[in-house]
Write a structure and sequence with these properties.
25% of the residues are buried. The chain folds into two domains: 126 residues, no CATH class; 161 residues, Alpha-Beta Plaits (2-Layer Sandwich), CATH 3.30.70. It is an alpha+beta fold.
Length: 371
């Protein structure tokens, strides 16, 4: 038995708070948490989080990174690179900090490698997974904290409620992510066409002709100086919701970056329709919501690790930067393909930073009767 009072782990607590911490400490000790871990958690102010940390870790620490590499049959330095790419870097290679979940993850990397996937390609995908899942984890954390924290909670109440929620929800989150991944993979595989030239050269997955759109909020930086961070976050979140709503295949939302959204499409017409719908949705939010503006360009684009690069991406971004609030500007290549589907007004020929030639720009509007 540990004398928690003598160890100083109950200092400055009284009555119900003291009893609740004592019960939590006793429970954690019975589950195998060491006195050093408990002392560190109390000192660091994270005793409430210790149960949920253990629940999410998939068990107690059993292995060092070096042991994980040996058991998985991989080089330690390569395994460390993969882990860092995912956003969960290993620390001391000889410190016993890793669990059975870490061992299973390392074995999965080995299985991908044995299947013939190149290391650098897998590292690119790992970075994308790391960034994406970090956002997913943050969204889930915010929702969980808002839902579970109740007035008057003790450390014990909150700790056990967090741990129970993690144990209940994690088996549901995994299949949800798997379902979303399968659905997106299916849509993108259907979209890809492998032609005879690709088969002849053996080079599949190079540049593809896409229509790219950026939409951003006007004066978002100024808005951040006038409202609370929580309200600013709600505004950015609303932009993401609206972008998701208009991104119906073949249009796909690639990412949102604070005050901006990036979309791509294999066909120009649906992209212009989506951009106009997004501008209209922002207007319908009312005067308190910032104006949106959008820029669209079409041409060869390089897909890489879930993102897109190339002249059309740069051009769409630059066009957005000069668009007037509430407008959708398109380049000449986009207008040529969908000339009869919308009404256009020529807004000039501009030289844009980073673009090698002057660009003719047109403002796109819905044709009369198509609103």
């Amino acid at each position: 038995m540990i004398d928690f009072e003598a160890e100083g782990l109950l200092d400055e607590l009284k009555d119900d708070a003291r009893e609740a911490r004592l019960q939590l400490l006793q429970r954690l000790a019975e589950e195998g948490v060491s006195l050093d871990e408990l002392r560190e958690a109390v000192t660091g102010g994270r005793l409430t989080l210790l149960p949920v940390e253990r629940a999410l870790a998939g068990g107690p620490p059993l292995y060092t990174p070096r042991e994980i590499a040996e058991l998985a049959g991989m080089e330690l330095d390569l395994l460390q690179r993969f882990s860092a790419a995912l956003g969960v870097p290993y620390n001391d290679p000889d410190e016993k900090t890793l669990t059975e979940s870490d061992l299973e993850a390392a074995r999965r990397v080995k299985a991908f490698r044995d299947a013939g996937l190149p290391d650098e390609g897998m590292l690119q995908v790992a970075r994308t997974i790391g960034m994406g899942t970090a956002r997913i984890a943050e969204a889930n954390r915010e929702l969980t904290v808002r839902t579970l924290v109740q007035p008057g909670d003790t450390e014990r109440d909150l700790a056990l409620r967090f741990a129970a929620a993690a144990e209940y929800m994690m088996p549901l989150v995994g299949p949800t992510l798997e379902y979303a991944l399968q659905a997106h993979m299916l849509e993108q595989v259907r979209r890809d066409v492998i032609g005879a030239a690709d088969l002849e050269s053996g080079e599949i997955g190079g540049t593809v002709d896409l229509t790219v759109c950026f939409a951003d909020m006007v004066e978002f930086t100024r808005l951040g100086e006038e409202i609370a961070p929580e309200e600013l976050g709600m505004v950015a979140g609303r932009l993401e919701e609206m972008a998701v709503a208009v991104a119906e295949p073949p249009v796909r939302l690639v990412k949102t970056i604070g005050d901006a959204a990036m979309l791509v499409s294999t066909e120009p017409k649906p992209m212009v329709e989506a951009a106009l719908a997004l501008i209209k949705a922002a207007e319908e939010e009312g005067e308190e919501f910032p104006w949106l503006r959008a820029g669209i360009a079409s041409g060869p684009t390089l897909p890489q690790a879930g993102d897109y690069y190339g002249r059309s991406v740069n051009l769409a971004s630059r066009i957005t930067g000069i668009a007037r609030p509430g407008s959708v500007l398109v380049d000449e290549d986009t207008k040529k393909v969908v000339d009869g589907d919308f009404s256009y007004s020529f807004v000039g020929e501009r030289r844009l930073k980073g673009i090698d030639s002057r660009v003719k720009l047109f403002r796109a509007r819905r044709s009369l009767g198509n609103d």
